[in-house]
Structure formats: C-alpha cells, structure tokens
Amino acid sequence: MSTTGNEAAIEEIRAVIEDWAEALRQKDAERVLAHGTEDCLVFSLAPPLTASDGDGEGLEQWFSTWKGPIGYRLEEVDISASGDVAFATALAHLSGEKHDGEKASLWYRQTLGLKWTEKGWKIAHQHESVPFYMDGSFKAAVDLDPRSEVDWQSPSHPPMAGVIAYLGVQDANATAEFYGRAFGAKEVDRKYAEDGKRLIHCHLTINGGALMLNDPFPEFGYQWRPPEGFVLHLVVDDADFWWKRAVAAGAEVTMPLEIAFWGDYYGQLRDPFGITWAIVAPVKKGD
C-alpha cells in the first residue's frame, strides 16, 4: 500500500476502507452505508450507468443472492489525501457462491473518492470497472488475474478433452445462431476479423461438448468448401426432444429417427448450412 499526503489522514482513510471492506464481506448493509455519504455516487459493474449507495434495500437484495459470506479483498491500494478530499485506487477481488450454484471469482478496478465530514472520512464516490477485449466481441475481461504472467491480449482457456470439430462455414454468425435454436448451443467465445463481420473463431458448447466455427477467408487461402464425408453425432437421453427441436428450427430430415438395425434409436438431419447431424439415444428396455 502506498500513500501520498497527510499521514494522519491516510491512516484514518485506511481504517475506513478496511472496515467498509469487512462490512461487505459480512453482508452488513447498515455498516456499509454508514461509511458513505448520503449522496454517494456509484459507478458499479452492474447496470444502470449511475446509482446511489444510499439505497439500503438494493444493497440488501444484492447481498441476499450470495450463499454465505462474500470474499472481498483489495490489493495494490494507493491512497492520496489533500485537505478534505482523498482518493484511493486498488485492484479488488470478489468471490463467493450464489444461491443458484453459480461461483464467482473475478478481479476488477476499484476507485474510491472520499471527503472529510463532521463525522469523519466518508466515501462519496465509488467507481468499479473492468477492461474489455478489443477483438470485436466487447466481452468484459473478467478472467484477468494481476498475478498471472499470461499475455492477456485475448482470453485464454483451459485444455479441453477429446477431439473437437472445427467447422469452416459460409456464415459463422448465422450458423451459431441456428445451432442455438436447433441444438441448444451456448456461446463461450467469439472473435471477429478486422472487418468486424466475419468470425475468425466461435466457440460453442452443445450437449456438454465443444464445437468451433469460423468464416472462410479466401484472401488468406482458406476457401469455403461444401461439407461432406462426416457426421456430427449427438448422443442424448431424450432423442425425441432433440429431434423435434432441431426440425422445428429448420433442420431437414435425411434419415428418420427410428430404432436402427444395430439397436440404437437413430436418425440424421441436415442443417441449412449443409452439415449432417445424427441424433442418437440408447434403446431402453421396454421400448
């Protein structure tokens, strides 16, 4: 922690910030608000663009979404004070488990503006922010770690098991959107080319597995070619559900869904982009 200005004021401000942080960890809304001015302005990570920290009800609602105490700590704290105004900057780490099972762990930038009042130093302004990736995705860079030596110019992902299909398609944006409707695909990541239109990379998950897409780039020797000679298998518990959803979204039936001679419940579909999919489910006893 570095300091600039009146040392006595710095120590008082440090104590205020530490107690404010502890109140956040304990989800003590009254104690949190006691450290702020009545008109404290908040630029938080969550919408809207501006808010007031004087709303105890909103703070209590946010606290209620967390299961147990909140993990909250500040690192690289720098405090400057002059007269009745002070600023503190830090890197904040927020972690914990939500009631819906989601586990949070993210770093972000925290700036506090304080002013001297008749009741001592109070927080008059809070500003939270994260960088965003400059790859056209505009995704918040919430996976950064100040202790990491990784080059964070683009997101990094842990190793993934198995063999992953990487498809070159004519319109990766449209394909990804269709796969969301037809196969419940969830988007993990996407990167746009310099033209801001074509995708150089799109990472989807379908049925727990990964699927990658990209647009053709003939100027770099990557022409589009019609897909042939492969089938994407979806082995699922409820083949009828997956089949009906895909057909409703616009997939063409090329082989009816029925019990095949080898014993599986099996059918094939062709999506609007020429990719063949197989819906497969084991036949249960009694079927």
Automatic annotation (TrEMBL):
Pfam families: Glyoxalase, SnoaL_3
InterPro entries in the record: Glyas_Bleomycin-R_OHBP_Dase, Glyas_Fos-R_dOase_dom, NTF2-like_dom_sf, SnoaL-like, VOC_core
Domain (VOC) ranges: 160-282
Record protein name field: Nuclear transport factor 2 family protein
Native species: Sinorhizobium numidicum
Species classification: Bacteria, Pseudomonadati, Pseudomonadota, Alphaproteobacteria, Hyphomicrobiales
